[in-house]
Design a protein that fits this description.
The complex is a heterodimer of chains A (288) and B (243). By secondary structure, chain A is an all-alpha fold. Chain A has helices at 5-11, 17-29, 33-52, 68-77, 85-102, 118-130, 134-154, 159-162, 168-182, 187-199, 217-236, 245-258, 275-282; one strand at 106-108. Chain A is globular and about 60 Å long. Helices cover 31% and strands 33% of the residues of chain B. Chain B starts with 9 loop residues before the first helix and ends with a strand. Classes of the chains: A mainly alpha (288), B alpha+beta (243). At the A-B interface, helix 1, helix 2, helix 3, helix 5 and strand 1 of A face helix 1, helix 2, strand 1, helix 3 and helix 4 of B. Strand 1 (106-108) of chain A pairs antiparallel with strand 1 of chain B.
Chain lengths: 288, 243
């Protein structure tokens, strides 16, 4: 059992980060290795199904989301990709998944529905370009889940209590650690990738227009995913976070507590109260 | 302490001890659940409220009046809360891809659905009241709250306060407020080897109507529930196997 990233590193002295996380899951739920891995495999399968189910012509019921993933796909296909094939695909997948969520399609909350695009965008694109076996992807999901669990237990994964840093920020930190693992990083590198990613997300407000999981959430999935790739690359190159991973998480908790309620999923501050948002909301109807 | 050495140090120890009790999360609450979007509270939680209400009614819904309150009322349309509540009433779980089509499915099945604004004086921001009539004429009034992350609380049944999550098998017994009914229920559960996880008692007033909410570790066999409905002084028994 672990309560911090430092705990995971200590317990992973002679084994992989993912093994420590998987074994703790087996112990806490009293399940076998096969049962635990089978369940993670189902999550991966559901992520892949959600990735495939994107419909570029579909709009959300508010009319605010839909079609941007298709634009990114077309731009990638046009051969003018500014970011390289891998990163271009990561951005496309993240926006597509965010749009699918807004359009009431089936997704995997990771860690939340609003941030569901970040982790699959990074992992499935890595699978496509890295040609790795599925078992490795499942291991990477354990790395991500272990990081998310520590953040959830020591800070927050809910926008309503911690702002967007708790949602896209956590997803980005989880994806960064998972990607560092896939690219051959050791446990220390995984922890640093996670810390670098989360540090860059600290203070991010949750200020969705009309209180809906759409603006800015959908596009922010892409930014969170790109941040994860950048952080993993830095950590893999040997860049180390001056602030320890657990201290970054604790900072996130304190920042979340100090954030005003208007910036925590109430739709009463930030982008949500901008002139543009007022115009958008004027055209939307209530439930009744 | 070198910057990269974060396994020890006073700061880490202080952080550990100052946090108090840690919220315990399951790994598959972090990667998962598989659900239909866009929001765990406004969509997945709403499906679970509808599902619990439908199961508590115990028969096919014929007529539903759904009153929305707070954020459910203000942002429910964009979050598909209306469709999610109806999907749950139809027996769908939060990962059912047909949730988005629930209103059309209800119409095809000739289930009358009507939405309104709740007149609750106060409540949890994500609250829905479902006033249901079943095929055989049974009625049920359920107030459900979506409390975050897809978790719910059933706050009222037929106007009497209750508080349960619907995550484990739950027995709700309406009875006259007179001696002996608690022991009848607990004896039946003991006889069926069902362990009680929590038990709550409520009443309208002394000698009036009372409600017992019993959350259990095991499912309750149908014959035990059937037996309870015939006990004198018991007015109504509803059971929800949990989800």
């Amino acid at each position: 059992m672990y309560n911090s990233i430092a705990d995971i590193l200590e317990q992973s002295d002679k084994k992989a980060f993912w093994e420590t996380v998987m074994e703790a899951d087996m112990e806490s739920r009293d399940v076998s290795r096969d049962e635990s891995r089978q369940q993670m495999k189902q999550m991966l399968a559901a992520m892949k199904a959600a990735d495939r189910s994107y419909e570029g012509s579909r709009k959300s019921s508010s009319g605010l989301s839909g079609g941007d993933g298709k634009l990114l796909e077309e731009y990638n296909r046009a051969g003018k990709n500014l970011c390289g094939d891998f990163l271009g695909k990561v951005m496309e997948r993240a926006v597509k998944m965010g749009e699918s969520n807004a359009c009431m399609k089936r997704i995997v909350a990771a860690p939340t529905a609003g941030s569901c695009g970040v982790i699959p965008a990074v992992l499935l694109s890595y699978e496509e370009y890295g040609k790795i076996p599925e078992d490795e992807l499942i291991n990477a999901l354990y790395v991500a889940a272990g990081i998310g669990k520590v953040i959830g237990e020591n800070a927050s994964i809910a926008g309503a209590s911690g702002g967007c840093q708790a949602e896209i920020g956590t997803a980005s930190a989880m994806a960064a650690g998972a990607l560092a693992y896939l690219q051959g990083g050791d446990n220390e590198t995984i922890a640093n990738a996670m810390a670098l990613a989360l540090k860059n997300m600290l203070g991010l407000a949750c200020d969705p227009v009309g209180g809906l999981v759409e603006v800015p959430c959908v596009k922010r999935n892409s930014h969170g995913a790109v941040n994860a790739v950048a952080s993993a690359q830095m950590a893999l190159a040997g860049v180390r976070s001056a602030i320890s991973p657990d201290d970054v998480i604790d900072s996130m908790r304190r920042i979340g507590n100090e954030m005003p309620a208007s910036l925590k999923e109430t739709g009463k501050g930030g982008l949500a109260t901008s002139e543009s948002a007022r115009r958008i909301c004027g055209g939307m109807s209530r439930s009744v | 302490m070198a910057p990269e050495d974060f396994r020890s140090g006073a700061a880490g120890l202080f952080a550990f001890y100052s946090k108090g009790v840690l919220a315990d999360m399951e790994l598959f609450d972090i990667i998962g659940p598989v659900m239909v979007g866009p929001s765990s509270s406004h969509t997945a939680g709403a499906v679970r409220i509808g599902y619990a209400a439908g199961r508590l009614l115990g028969e096919k819904v014929k007529d539903a009046r759904i009153l929305l309150y707070g954020s459910f009322l203000d942002t429910g349309k964009g979050h598909g809360t209306d469709r999610a509540l109806v999907a749950g009433l139809l027996g769908m779980k939060p990962d059912d891809y047909k949730i988005a089509d629930s209103l059309e499915i209800a119409e095809r099945e000739s289930i009358h659905i009507e939405f309104g604004e709740s007149k609750l004086p106060e409540g949890h921001p994500n609250t829905a009241e479902l006033i249901l009539t079943g095929e055989s004429g049974t009625t049920l009034d359920v107030v459900g709250e979506s409390v975050g992350g897809g978790k719910i609380n059933i706050a009222k049944i037929d106007g009497i306060d209750t508080n349960f999550s619907g995550e484990c098998p739950t027995l709700i017994v309406h009875n006259l407020d007179q001696p002996g009914h608690v022991s009848e229920v607990t004896s039946m559960l003991a006889h069926k080897s069902v362990n009680i996880a929590s038990m709550q008692l409520y009443r309208s007033h002394r000698g009036g109507r009372a409600v017992m909410v019993v959350e259990c570790d095991q499912e309750i066999p149908q014959d035990g529930i059937e037996w309870l409905t015939h006990v004198e002084g018991v007015l109504k028994v509803t059971y929800f196997e949990g989800a």
